[in-house]
## 1
Amino acid sequence: MPDTPLIMLENVSKAYRKAKSEISIFDQLNLSIKEGDFVAIMGPSGSGKTTLLNLLGGVDRPTSGTITINGERIDKMSESALSRWRAHTVGFIFQFYNLMPMLTAARNVELPLLLTKLSRKQRRENVMTALKVVGLEDRAKHSPREMSGGQQQRVAIARAIVSDPKLLLCDEPTGDLDRETAGEILSTLQMLNRDFGKTILMVTHDPEAAKYAKSILHLDKGHFVEELVTS
Amino acid sequence: MMKQILSVSWISLRSLPQRLWLSLATILTIAVVVAVLLAFLAMSNGFRKTLEGTGSDDVALILRGGASTELNSVLSREDQAVLETAAGIAKNNGEPMISGELYVVVNGTKKTSGTKVNLPLRGLSEQGIAMRGPVTISQGRLFVPGRNELVVGRALLGEFDGFDLNSTVRFGATDWDIVGVFETGGTVFESELWSDLAGVQNQFNRGSSVQSVRAKLTSPDAIEDLKDFAENDPRLGVDVISEKDYFKEQSQSTSDLILVLGWPLAIAMGLGALAGALNTIYTSVAARARDIATLRAIGFSSLSAFFGTLSESLALSVLGGLLGAAVAWSFFDGLSTSTLGGGFTQVVFSFQLGGALLVQGAILALGIGLVGGFFPAIRAARLPVAMAFSDR
Ligand SMILES: Nc1ncnc2c1ncn2[C@@H]1O[C@H](COP(=O)(O)OP(=O)(O)OP(=O)(O)O)[C@@H](O)[C@H]1O
Ligand SMILES: [Mg+2]
């Protein structure tokens, strides 16, 4: 594994222009995360956690500064290049799962593969593999409506890993789940980090959830105020 | 890219049931607009076909100079005598094949609306009947000259009240017996009443004058000889036109008028349907915003969001167009009606739909679908991807 970190933020500022005033979310933020890490990001509401994930996922752009992920500068990429970059570098896991309600679990998981050159047969195999990883191979034909929140989130995780991205970005992945189900999801993430080498950034409000990560970043007033390493 | 577009389209189409009523309303409005347009087109088309199917190019129609229709033309006994000697006219047993005819207006009542309308009563000879191609008496018999008898055209009989076989009609102070029904193969003549020339001249106080003279030509080209003759004879002040051209000209103004009414009406209604389509698709984009943003986060292109949205709009317009065409086809195609022809009298014709007209209906429907989907599709393509992370 090379010494250069997987994620590098240098002097990243992000401000939103609202009416006449400018609201600064980050000012000159620096951050580096090495490949294979599992980082929990905590902080009060409105501190910019989601904004940070958006920047790292190439879904939003910094006002200034550079973002380098996996050796690629994504802050200056064109829209279409960013789309392609997202397709093979990042997997997103959302608080509300964001599954397409009219598609079966398998069809949902297949979506990222539609952007690849894989044949239908290969796609089906990869989908089943991903569903097996999250323990839902027997639910392939079910629609999201027929599944519990925890199961839906596991389908979403399968979708995030099916195209084998290096980086998983999770925004409150257990925010909508009870503690027990949350524990299962977090264990799954832990397993993906440990056994599959996925680098994971996870935003959470819940200190219990953060304990599943290897390290915790506390975001406040646009700065990382401390960096704790859990036992 | 195609896979992306197809799957986004599929997802938006699959989510249609969530906007069932709005989508159905859009389909219906587009269907109504297309049906209305097709009705006008079929009407114009049917009218034009009926008039253009009337008249032959080896029959010349001779009218008073400057008179554009038979109704406001008059030719004297002397004019007729000169015309009998004219060049280019075919002969039968040495006699020129020529037919002086009277064309007078009588009252009738339209069956469908009960309105009073003007109907043409034509006085003509057997020679004149023979000039109208194959004329068949489908019921009863032909009139006997001098007996105030009428035969009624098949189309006129179907569309107007009071002309049933064996009944009697009163025009002015005279009763006329209806003794037969004639057919001329769907031409304008079927919208007429016929009787013998002398009888009509007599009852309508026209003396020996006629309104038009028809002449059988030796060949279609012989009309030039007849025109030369008419121009160079100082006794005549007449216009010569081939019967075919006469009806063509008559058809033009009315069928154009129908189109001039029909297209603007269809476009005005189309704008209403367009507003409905825009509203429906904007609603769809709003409802699918999170799905679209999620797909974009996964890596789907903004182009696929654009076409996925456009395809929903096109699907609605195609369904609306098909429904509209089906309605027009089952309700209007072949529907018989009458309208004022060029001669201030009613012409019976039927709505005629055809491939070319359906293409115009399809263009209108797809136009509504394209424009109605285009702007919402742009919005879909520009949705901020970060929306995928937003709350419900
Ligand atoms: N598109 C936007 N336009 C303007 N302001 C925005 C926009 N997105 C976020 N903000 C603002 O940026 C700040 C940080 O938002 P962000 O969503 O990153 O916070 P967060 O830490 O994720 O909060 P939460 O814990 O509630 O999810 C907030 O004050 C928010 O109002
Ligand atoms: Mg947030």
## 2
Amino acid sequence: MNNLLSLDFTVNGKSETFTFKPDASLLTVLRDNGRTEVHNGCETGDCGSCVVILNGKTVNSCMVLAASAKGGDILTVKALGDIYNPHPIQRAFAESGAVQCGFCTPGQVLSTYALLLENPDPDVEQIKKALDGNICRCTGYKKIIEAVLMAGRLMREADNG
Amino acid sequence: MNDLKWFFPESGSECLNLFNDGFQPHAGGTFLIKTSLKLSGLFDINSVADYKILKNTDTGIVLGSAVSYTDAASFLHAASPGNIISVALSQAASTPLRNRISIGGSIASSPKWSDITAPLAASGAVLRFEGSSEDIDYAVYSADRKMRKNNLVSSVSVPLDSIKGSYYRFTFTGFDYPTFTLAVSKRSDDFFVCAVNGARDGLRVFKGNSDAVIAEASQTLSFNSERGMSEDYILSRAISELRRLFPKGGADDE
Ligand SMILES: Cc1cc2nc3c(=O)[nH]c(=O)nc-3n(C[C@H](O)[C@H](O)[C@H](O)COP(=O)(O)OP(=O)(O)OC[C@H]3O[C@@H](n4cnc5c(N)ncnc54)[C@H](O)[C@@H]3O)c2cc1C
Ligand code: FES
Ligand code: FES
């Protein structure tokens, strides 16, 4: 008999009860519950397309046993904005040409968000380090780095009114 | 597999009871999630305050077993910039993985590619197990599979004066599993403790002046061939990287 767990997480500001197998990954639980903006690329911790922010830190949701996120606060890329009301990071990615197929983009955007909250004006080396777990098969990274620099500028300008 | 139970203890003694009942600790989960999880139960140790400890004491730095690589690296860097453990931990895996991978989970699972093994061995780190006040030498623990299986690690302490030195990981790209890692702890101008992890027989420790360490390593180290690289190539690469880690003419590379 399957022993299912029912645990609460807060996803994008909304607390919900999720029911899942005790060995399920956080990636599976999120996607099975409609959070398909969290992408499934490799399920081995290598690509970063499944990155979410858990309790303030980026994690590969495929490498997190969902039960261990009990009570956790999870942000997916949808928490930041959407096409009608994009976050400055999402705008910067679009305007810099840092999005081609878009598969890696939710993870890249969330890694950028976590970086800019901690360090509003990162240099290129700091950007490379913060995004070292996000692989892009399309863009070659130059545009992504430009997008992060632009996002930093936009966010600093917004902060300075 | 689906009968796996989960527990969320808040104290070391609750953890020890669960461990003695045959349940396994869960820290970062990055190793466990890759296993078949044919276990009766897991207890998550992240709510135990003592296992999240990061502190500077007279004898050195204490890192709780559930502390992540990210948090450990930044605390150690603040205490002693550029030390071998913070350099090693901040190069491991990738940012989102370092946010999860724990000190204790890495010490216990000790994969061949772990970036924590060589610097802990070189710096003479000691471990504490839950339910005991004895200091256990990390290198002894690391070599003893039974000791690893039968003990719940609560913390590791590293002496501040032995974490100065240099670290190297041999990888193809930044985010890659290292084939071998090297850590050199400088104890004085002519006495070093050097740890090599990933050798055919696992972790090796060499002590002495730079010439003695390099001579012994050259004569006694061996590696398995891996990823299209021959045993001889990996050995020659390890020895030349080791030479580079030693300061020229006995002066430090800090
Ligand atoms: C894609 C990928 C790349 C990686 N690359 C690297 C790398 O380059 N360098 C590197 O250093 N690491 C790397 N790792 C991490 C490494 O492979 C292990 O997964 C990690 O060290 C395990 O730590 P954890 O906290 O996740 O342990 P867990 O998965 O939580 O536990 C591992 C084992 O240790 C036991 N355990 C946990 N805590 C304790 C404790 N306190 N006392 C006793 N036993 C305990 C568990 O029961 C389990 O058996 C990588 C991991 C992934 C997924
Ligand atoms: S799907 Fe998680 S890292 Fe690739
Ligand atoms: S835009 Fe296609 S993988 Fe990054």
